[in-house]
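dude i think i finally got it to work??
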Amino acid sequence: MNPARRCSTLLSQLCVTSRGGSTARIPLSPGAVSAPGGTRCCLSGVGGGGRAGVKEACTQLRPSRARTTGNAQVCPMGGGSSRLFGTLAQSLNRASLAQPAPYPEENPDQDQDLAQADPDELLRECEAVLQRRPARPHRHLVYPSGTASRRHKHNPAIRIMQWNILAQALGEGKDGFVRCPMDALNWQERKYLIMEEILTYRPDVLCLQEVDHYYDTFQPILASLGYQGSFLAKPWSPCLDVEQNNGPDGCALFYRRSRFSLQATAHLRLSAMMLPTNQVAIVQTLICRVTGQRLCVAVTHLKARSGWERFRSAQGADLLQSLRSITSPSGSSSQTEAAPGTVPLVVCGDFNAEPSEDVYRRFSSSALGLNSAYKLLSSDGQTEPAYTTWKIRPSGESCSTLDYIWYSHGALSVDCLLDIPTEEQIGPDRLPSYHYPSDHLSLLCDFSFREEPHRLM
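look at this
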């Protein structure tokens, strides 16, 4: 495919048309955004109205799925005059739109020469496209007691986001969200809602599941924002069963190149009972450019559905064994205790498991010394949130805690977390919706190394 055809193809994917109507979007009011490691603050805003306001806005909002309405065409993300589109066009000049091999060679420097996009400008583009949609639920950053004293300029916080973003093919073709209008799942706008969430909080490390638009959307856009990405597809993705799919879904891990350099990457296909499964994990060992410390980050997505509890437990055991080997200073997989010098670890994922399941107990009792960050939102510090996903399917309503951020509590401290929206904020039709792009909530934590600052110079 020649470069002109590639650009034309990409433009048809990314271009969003203006739609008539007088319904205005409740304005998003982001605060000042600091550089990585700086003081963090809650950036999202939302108007009043509660559940009634959301319901009214959703009732008014019924955008057409047609590509053109009226005379004007607006292409804020990927348009010919956009710096971002120039970046995407450069990347397409080097590679086909076809997806590369499932286990591509990592090259952390491949995107260094790309023109860099302005994140504030891209956030405004997202808001312009989404002006007819109600704003996302307002979420606060919560600071657990005793965290303020650990802040230090030589040990700035590391922001990590975990999110199952909902594969586009599954959302439109298989998942059956009976209370979510199909217009709300239109990729031409839903991708902007996903990017708006990422741009609002600007994590240093981004861990995603159910990514089926990695090569044509997330990799080029996030590369232009200074991120390095890695993707691993499921061997047999259910997305491939959907007509007009965009390829298999999988896990993706992005880190900010200005904050980290890459030491090693492992692409894992998880096993259960010594048999390879359809679930995968990405594990990367990063070196913090500020402190010189190493940090191991993993992202995974375990087997879904009730009745597969033992299967998930076996997958978790396999992942833990791999993580012990990767983070151990000698490369061993000793199961007795975390040896001195073990690399601090963060494991993000959709585990498809409630806290009552065995796989949760495996992680909480692991010799790696892992704790679940979101327990710190509770008053006793021991209770997970009531839900991280809330949806309505033909089989009924499902409100569950399935998503986690595990961390080495002996080596890392939690500075703050993004809270969970209330039932009223989510709305009676649950997720996904016009104001939220996925059936899973994003999780966000700021971590700091526990070592004394003078040791991090």
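The two ends are 50 Å apart (CA to CA).
im so relieved honestly
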